[in-house]
Design brief:
The protein is an alpha/beta fold and about 350 residues long. The protein has a domain of about 210 residues: Rossmann fold (3-Layer(aba) Sandwich), CATH 3.40.50. The protein is about 40% helix and about 15% strand. The chain contains 15 helices and 11 strands. It has a 7-stranded mixed sheet with strand order 3-2-1-4-7-11-8, with helices on both faces. A two-stranded antiparallel sheet has the order 5-6. A two-stranded antiparallel sheet has the order 9-10. A hairpin with a 5-residue loop joins strand 9 and strand 10. Helix 1 crosses helix 2. The longest helix has 17 residues. It is globular.
Length: about 350
């Protein structure tokens, strides 16, 4: 298997739990199992940062996430073949950049006036471009590329610290810039994307499964509800200062529950069809290292590699009240990211862990 190093550019969207700094160790762990590893499934793909890196490393990747915005990113960065779609994507993005704003609608009112994620001039442009995408009968890969480009363009001019549970009290400097779409950094070659619950996607045939589940009370639907609405384009009922989708109240992910996470994680691990696993799990999560090892040991030999990792930017800024006054101190600015490698073969588990640790060291 030929290894192609990932380029310097990275995904733009600000994302809590992002593995941007851990991509190389994760890829090393997957490849460390042996040269016969050619297919991987990413069961909680998020921004698809890891899935894209594994694809660039020469694996056939299936990226899965149950949220609409994350599944869209997976269709763009993992499933879309750059050789097939790059030229058409470039032409489409040029056309979308020329679409003028034509008034303010639901999205601009909700997210630029009632809640201030974007400045109104950019909100109106987002609406115009989103309507233009919806009005074209685009093939699914090209639609995913266009929606990803729009999400990333909006992210570059937003006024948040990275979470969409709230917004900055004063407009961020970048929010004054004009919305401008770019062609996403597509990767050549085949891939696949699904939008399933992880326990369903776990049945995907693969050589190795990568698991990076939600690990504490923070809901990705709530944290990134603006992008979920932008992709679904369904004008949902909203609530609260942040104008969250009302289904943020009704959807209860077991991985966000201290009581339910152990059984949910164990169910996914049992369902994984791939013989080998790589699992990322922060020490800020609801499950301890011993609990995780106990669950994973049912699948084979477990080795653990950990490294320090900076917490998301909002945690480093501090705690403020609704008036914007600093009212508290944060407890810590770093956590430990733990990676668990699992194989029925002890030597392969050792080799994977060693490769992961060497990648961290370099």
């Amino acid at each position: 298997m030929v290894f192609h190093a990932a380029p310097a550019e990275h995904l733009v969207i600000k994302y809590i739990g992002s593995k941007r700094l851990l991509v190389d160790p994760i890829v090393a762990a997957v490849r460390g199992f042996g040269p016969d590893v050619g297919r991987a499934v990413d069961l909680f793909s998020g921004t698809s940062r890891v899935g894209r890196a594994l694809k660039r490393a020469g694996l056939h990747v299936t990226a899965n996430d149950h949220l609409a915005f994350a599944a869209t990113l997976a269709r763009c960065y993992v499933a879309a073949d750059a050789d097939r779609w790059r030229d058409e994507a470039a032409a489409l993005i040029d056309e979308l950049n020329a679409v003028p704003a034509d008034g303010e609608g639901w999205f601009t009112k909700a997210f630029c006036h009632d809640a201030r994620y974007l400045q109104p001039h950019n909100g109106a442009r987002v609406e115009a471009v989103r309507r233009a995408i919806a009005g074209r009968d685009l093939p699914p890969p090209l639609e995913a590329i266009a929606l990803t480009s729009l999400m990333e363009a909006a992210d570059r001019v937003d006024s948040t610290t990275g979470l969409q549970m709230a917004y900055l009290k004063k407009w961020a400097k970048r929010s004054y810039n004009d919305l401008s779409l770019r062609v996403p950094a597509l990767t050549p070659g085949p891939g696949a994307a699904t939008r399933l619950e992880a326990v369903e996607a776990a049945a995907t045939e693969a050589d190795v499964a990568y698991l990076d589940p939600p690990y504490n009370q923070h809901s990705y639907l709530g944290n990134y509800h603006v992008w979920e609405t932008l992709v679904r384009w369904d004008d949902p009922e909203t609530y609260g200062v942040a104008n969250k989708r009302v289904d943020c109240k009704t959807y209860k992910n077991p991985f966000n529950s201290r009581v339910r996470i152990r059984d949910a994680f164990a169910a996914v691990v049992r369902a994984v069809a791939a013989p080998e696993l790589v699992v990322s799990f922060s020490d800020e999560g609801f499950l301890s290292q011993d609990e995780l090892v106990s669950i994973l040991s049912a699948r084979g030999h477990v080795r653990v590699v950990s490294t320090k990792h900076g917490r998301y930017v909002g945690a480093r800024i501090g705690i403020y009240n609704p008036a914007g006054e600093k009212v508290g101190k944060i407890s810590h600015t770093e956590n430990r990211e733990r990676m668990f490698v699992v194989s029925p073969d002890e030597a392969r588990a050792e080799a994977s862990a060693r490769a992961c640790a060497e990648a961290i060291a370099t």
